[in-house]
Amino acid sequence: MLKPRPTPTRELVNLDGLWRFTLDTVAGSHPWSGPLETSLEVAVPASYNDLFTDSAIRDHVGWVWYQRQVRVPRGWTGERIMLRVDAATHEGRVYVNDTLVAEHVGGYTPFEADITGLVRPGQEFRLTIGVGNELTNVTIPPGTITVTEDGGRRQTYLHDFYNYAGLARSVWLYSLPPVHVTDVTVVTSLDGTVEYAVETSEPAPVRVRVVDATGAEIAAADGASGTVRVENAVLWRPGAAYLYDLVVEVPDQDIYPQPFGVRTVEVKGTQVLINGEPFYFTGFGKHEDSPVRGKGHDNAYLVHDFQLMDWIGANSFRTSHYPYAEEVLEFADRHGIVVIDETAAVGLNLSIEAGLTGAAKRPTFSPETLNDETQEAHAQAIRELIARDKNHPSVVMWCIANEPSSNEEGAREYFEPLVELTRKLDPTRPVCYATVMFATYDNDLIADLFDVVCLNRYYGWYVATGDLATAETYLEADLRGWAQKYGKPIMMTEYGADTMPGVHSVWDIPWTEEYQAACLAMHHRVFDRIDALVGEHVWNFADFQTTGAIHRIDGNKKGVFTRERRPKAAAHALRARWTSLGDRKPSK
Ligand code: GCB
After folding, report:
1. For ligand 1, what atom is nearest to the CA of residue 556?
2. Which of 7, 29, 141, 424 gets the most CB atoms within 10 Å of its CB?
3. Is the pLDDT of residue 585 over 90?
């Protein structure tokens, strides 16, 4: 799905700002059929949960309503008029005046509606967006709704971040010429060959031009698909981005520039190669999370987070545990940061439920739990992720799930078709999933289907807590086991320790700043002894909000930075390591 951009043939109106807001509390009411009766206003983009003081809003399970008036620019006569919601977490329903124009399930990917027939250039309409936050056994991510003793509804889920909801990304009104470009796919080779495929709203002649970063046209071709050749192509490299535009034209109708980089990704033996050269990932699993905004996209945090990643020597991150705002990927494209792009398939693991909630043990994959319908929702999440992000040079790998119960019966039947689908939709990028601690090289049932073994491990924290010597032997045995069995590259997608800033000790005491630094250093000693290791992503870049739990202090504290982005001691230690690693890790 193309990102809306202003071009000579397209105009764009941003609808962010303050909207009227209310909870859906009256069953059977139709809040979209008139002005919302409310004094509440809500910020867009932002998760709504932490904006208000009322816990009934923060903990609400169900639908909420956003509403505002929108005026269509008067010059849009004869154009198609489109409405685009960058994300409605987790489900959206869009009404133009009284008419339902779009419904979408999946909280982190965009959707849009053609509203041409319902609105008039120069005139206003009432835009109402319902947003539902319920997670069930057939949503991605999954969750469970229980009814409490007092009759209230409670949402539980097995992922470790707060279920922020609402319109956390931008909403747009934009115009399209009657005949327009609907999709562009670009695949590049190191010799400068650019394969492209363009789709249009109806059959029409297509012309493409490649424009370099100075604005000069350097190649052109006719036809909806084919190849163009960029002579002496400047490669998109980690740390040295270079972007071209494929300017797609439907003559006399539409112009759409699609940025792209010339680069390749490939897995060979135990290496991940970017542009044919081994790449070693340094960086983090992140979250879209900040005080007050929740998951609301914020350009100030975007800039600052990338500054901190640069400061610390991170060359990459994983969009744990859902697709991030497109602005984030575009920033990574422009600044040469490498991205592992993840779906929202997190918490597909009922084997940990019994331990966490005391509930009876249930199988993860079964008709009553995660079933064919869940798998279809997961497939849709993969389709929408790839449709949105396929042209980003920064994205080098798809991560289709975080910590599924991959050692449980049914895992292979569930995942095999999803891996096939991912490869069919994008044959150019490796595919991975992040493996949970309980899935070992001995009992995991799906690792052979994927290109890179990605491991989330918490030695020194959940296992061998406070005992780094034991943790070191466990970690090394674990990594060697995977290396020996699979012969694939191994990426450490999570490791770390919760840390309260300001707590110190001369001993190995969990939660202290020194312990976090020592725990990471222990991991790095082991990593440097494992040939197949291709990268290290610390969990997490920054502290983030979760549901309340006895092992969480106002959220997860495994950040190397606090939630306000202040460095803990480990940040300085990581900086010392990562800024002296160069392109590769030290010889093993
Ligand atoms: C994990 C999860 C991550 C959690 C982390 C933790 O394995 O992938 O979402 O936040 O552990 O800190 O427990």
Report:
1. 12
2. 141
3. no
